[in-house]
Amino acid sequence: MNRRSSIYSFLIITLYILLAEILLRFSQSSTEVLPYPSMVFKDIVYHSSYYLNGMLETTYTILGGLIPATIIGWSLAIFISESKLGNLLLRPLVDVSQLIPKTALLPLFLSIPFLGYSFLSKIVIVFLISFYPIFIDTLLGIKQINIQYINYFKIISPSKIKTIWYLKIPYSLPYSFNGLKTSVLYAVVGAVTSEILIGKSGLGYMIDYACTKLNFIQAYCGIISCIFLGGSMMIILNIFINRSKYLKYANK
């Protein structure tokens, strides 16, 4: 997304917020249930440290699951592309694992001694949710390589390691980064959901706690904080991708 598109998106979102403010002020709805956007943003400013602490806790959960998901998903895709036995044994297992509702595993984690209500349970959920997009997009990128390039590398160097390092990894990087963008969004959803169900801190816990106390302004503030956190992570990732010299080399 270029700078002009970002400005247009910001202006459109601002317009929607102003429209919501006007409609709610002219409606007869209770502000305790549907607070004005100005009330929500005012609460965020007044209690900024509270929401920043929640964002920090959720960020730890996201990164704790997303980083190993990126490394393992990327590595497993390369391994399966190189090994017929690995493709035969592991690919069906990976595909079937995506049919399992991840939140349905949380009650099972409570019966496992080293998981339970711990931070590790939330990390496992984030890992399971964010793993597949990186894996499948990297595998797709490797399969898109022209067979003539592969044959050329076999002629100049019979080493599989060199073929992987100088051809398959650079060629699949744009696909891997696309998968990572999807995984970041999934990781935010997974982290917040796990915090709502079994967490004792973080934005998800704050939203759930606010709803139980019927403090809907605080609940909306938590939701806005989730949007801000996910958007910030996407912006940082896009900046990294756009400035990646290795990716520019891969696109040539």
Task: Describe this entry's structure for a reader.
With about 250 residues, the chain is an all-alpha fold. It has two domains: about 1-30; about 35-250, MetI-like (MetI-like fold), CATH 1.10.3720. The chain has eleven helices and no strands. It has helices at about 5-25, 35-45, 50-80, 85-95, 105-110, 120-145, 145-155, 160-200, 205-210, 215-240, 245-250. The radius of gyration is 22 Å and the shape is globular. The chain starts with a helix and ends with a helix. About 25% of the residues are buried. The mean pLDDT is about 85. This is ABC transmembrane type-1 domain-containing protein. It is a multi-pass membrane protein. Keywords: Cell membrane, Membrane, Transmembrane, Transmembrane helix, Transport.
Summarize the structure.
This protein has 252 residues and is mainly alpha-helical. 81% of the residues lie in helices and 0% in strands.
- Quick one: biggest sheet? none
Q: Indicate the radius of gyration in whole angstroms.
A: 22 Å
Poorly predicted regions are: none
Question: How many helical stretches?
Answer: 11
- Classified by CATH, the class of the largest domain is Mainly Alpha
Give the % helix: over 70%
Distance between the termini: 20 Å
The CATH superfamily title of the largest domain: MetI-like
How would you summarize the topology of this molecule?
Elements: H1 3-26, H2 37-46, H3 48-82, H4 84-97, H5 106-109, H6 119-143, H7 147-156, H8 160-198, H9 203-212, H10 216-242, H11 245-251
Helix pairs in contact: 2-10, 3-4, 3-6, 3-8, 3-10, 6-8, 7-8, 8-9, 8-10, 8-11, 9-10
